[in-house]
């Protein structure tokens, strides 16, 4: 049996000493097994592979995409929910002192001022609906606001609104023990209302929700601290208004100063409350 005639058409274009009868599916050149890359249909030569890679859309590595998703996740919102849930578990343990140690009570403000904020993380032990309602509201509105204003601003908004709610209780109902994140939640509702109004969104339903919850707080027998709702709503709206008016990068120092001014005002009202009731 005679051998096939030797010519360039039957030899690899990159290795002339290697005979082959396999052609690149794209350019038609002869390629040996070493130069072949399996494609969806047939095989491709190294040059066609490089050309395809050069013209293909760039894709981010999976690890970078994962980091991007982590950066976009509402970490602060989920962290607050997690901490609040953990505190509630500690509350319901037999003989736990957590509630009495963290709840807000006006006469203790001068000696234990941290209760103004720690009260946000404790809830009524006898009503599971209390914490579920607050955390569900945070789960709904938290990610929206955190994505709009950023993590640090969102955390500041939550804590300052909660502080405003506690101070409102100090001024209007100083001898009423209070627990719960309702003041902070109403601060988020007020902030979302302010931002949505500025952006031209439809706020009618949100306004109804806020109004309905405020009214419920005034009903006898509901055991709801409407003072905290009102204080959180006012302070949260004020902080959101500052965020809106100082959005440019060159206004950051102004934003910090104005937010600090709101905090100073709230703390000033705390001092007024302490002196007013001679705590």
TrEMBL record:
<keyword id="KW-0645">Protease</keyword>
<keyword id="KW-0378">Hydrolase</keyword>
<dbReference type="InterPro" id="IPR050925">
    <property type="entry name" value="Rhomboid_protease_S54"/>
</dbReference>
<feature type="transmembrane region" description="Helical">
    <location>
        <begin position="154"/>
        <end position="172"/>
    </location>
</feature>
<dbReference type="Pfam" id="PF01694">
    <property type="entry name" value="Rhomboid"/>
</dbReference>
<feature type="transmembrane region" description="Helical">
    <location>
        <begin position="178"/>
        <end position="195"/>
    </location>
</feature>
<protein>
    <submittedName>
        <fullName>Membrane associated serine protease, rhomboid family</fullName>
    </submittedName>
</protein>
<feature type="transmembrane region" description="Helical">
    <location>
        <begin position="114"/>
        <end position="142"/>
    </location>
</feature>
<feature type="transmembrane region" description="Helical">
    <location>
        <begin position="256"/>
        <end position="277"/>
    </location>
</feature>
<feature type="transmembrane region" description="Helical">
    <location>
        <begin position="202"/>
        <end position="220"/>
    </location>
</feature>
<dbReference type="InterPro" id="IPR035952">
    <property type="entry name" value="Rhomboid-like_sf"/>
</dbReference>
<feature type="domain" description="B box-type">
    <location>
        <begin position="7"/>
        <end position="44"/>
    </location>
</feature>
<feature type="transmembrane region" description="Helical">
    <location>
        <begin position="226"/>
        <end position="244"/>
    </location>
</feature>
<keyword id="KW-0812">Transmembrane</keyword>
<dbReference type="InterPro" id="IPR000315">
    <property type="entry name" value="Znf_B-box"/>
</dbReference>
<keyword id="KW-1133">Transmembrane helix</keyword>
<dbReference type="InterPro" id="IPR022764">
    <property type="entry name" value="Peptidase_S54_rhomboid_dom"/>
</dbReference>
<feature type="transmembrane region" description="Helical">
    <location>
        <begin position="75"/>
        <end position="94"/>
    </location>
</feature>
<dbReference type="GO" id="GO:0004252">
    <property type="term" value="F:serine-type endopeptidase activity"/>
</dbReference>
<dbReference type="GO" id="GO:0008270">
    <property type="term" value="F:zinc ion binding"/>
</dbReference>
<dbReference type="GO" id="GO:0016020">
    <property type="term" value="C:membrane"/>
</dbReference>
<keyword id="KW-0472">Membrane</keyword>
<comment type="similarity">
    <text>Belongs to the peptidase S54 family.</text>
</comment>
<dbReference type="GO" id="GO:0006508">
    <property type="term" value="P:proteolysis"/>
</dbReference>
């Amino acid at each position: 049996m005679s051998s096939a005639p030797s010519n360039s058409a039957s030899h690899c274009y990159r290795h002339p000493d290697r005979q082959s009868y396999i052609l690149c599916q794209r350019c038609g050149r002869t390629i040996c097994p070493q130069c072949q890359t399996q494609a969806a249909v047939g095989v491709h030569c190294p040059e066609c592979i490089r050309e395809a890679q050069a013209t293909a859309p760039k894709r981010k590595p999976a690890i970078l995409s994962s980091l991007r998703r982590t950066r976009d996740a509402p970490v602060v919102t989920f962290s607050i929910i997690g901490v609040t849930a953990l505190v509630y578990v500690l509350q319901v343990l037999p003989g736990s002192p957590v509630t009495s140690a963290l709840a807000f009570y006006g006469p203790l403000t001068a000696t234990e001022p941290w209760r103004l904020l720690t009260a946000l993380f404790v809830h009524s032990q006898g009503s599971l609906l209390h914490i579920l309602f607050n955390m569900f509201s945070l789960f709904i509105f938290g990610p929206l606001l955190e994505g709009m204003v950023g993590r640090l601003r969102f955390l500041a908004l939550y804590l300052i609104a909660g502080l405003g709610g506690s101070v409102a209780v100090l001024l209007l109902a100083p001898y009423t023990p209070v627990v719960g994140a309702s003041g902070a939640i109403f601060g988020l509702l007020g902030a979302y209302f302010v931002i949505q109004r500025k952006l031209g969104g439809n706020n009618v339903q949100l306004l109804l929700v806020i109004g309905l919850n405020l009214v419920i707080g005034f009903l006898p027998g509901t055991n709801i601290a409407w003072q905290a709702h009102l204080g959180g709503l006012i302070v949260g709206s004020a902080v959101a208004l500052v965020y809106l008016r100082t959005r440019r990068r060159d206004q950051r120092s102004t934003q910090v100063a104005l937010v600090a001014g709101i905090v100073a005002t709230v703390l000033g009202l705390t001092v007024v409350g302490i002196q007013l009731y001679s705590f």
